[in-house]
Amino acid sequence: MEKIRLEIIGMSYSQSQSGAYALILAERDGKRRLPIIIGGFEAQSIAIELEKIKTPRPLTHDLFKTFAESFNISITEVIINKFQEGVFYAILVCSDGTTELEIDSRTSDAIALGLRFNCPIFTYESIMNTAGILMEEDQENSKSDELLQDIPSPEQSSYSDYSREELSQMLQSAVENEEYEKASRIRDELNKRK
Predict the structure, then answer these.
(1) pTM > 0.70
(2) Shared-domain flag, residues 180 and 115
(3) How many helices (H) and strands (E) would you count in the chain?
């Protein structure tokens, strides 16, 4: 079965499920998007890695990477291999240089680990046909914005009153205190100003 390469194009607070996030993947050579609902912890772990934020202590996915590398194991691919009853399933393709092994994983964990190992993310045509969203040329920008639109919280809206320098200091403090959700909201405010 031919694999389709995916890339992360964004993440936002899920408007349909409280406490969850929508991770939006796009096929590399096409116009389809694959929205996946993930939990807050995994969203935080993915966002921290995407933004290259250094945490004072390792998160679970960082610990897993260090553990695997200590035994010369790497993750070479993440494959979203099944979509059943609205749930995505994935496997980690792991290698120690001589043996390759597939390990079952939650999709959100697989992507968080895949980012840390800098490996490609794939899925199959059957999954894109079932769960993918086709983006037309004229719809692409407006629909992507709609998919990625975040619900502002009262705390987040108050960030607009701060200067970039103050926000940068607040971001650093939030990371040092392991307040990653707060850090991601501050980061979002800084990104809006770019």
Answers:
(1) yes
(2) no
(3) 8, 8
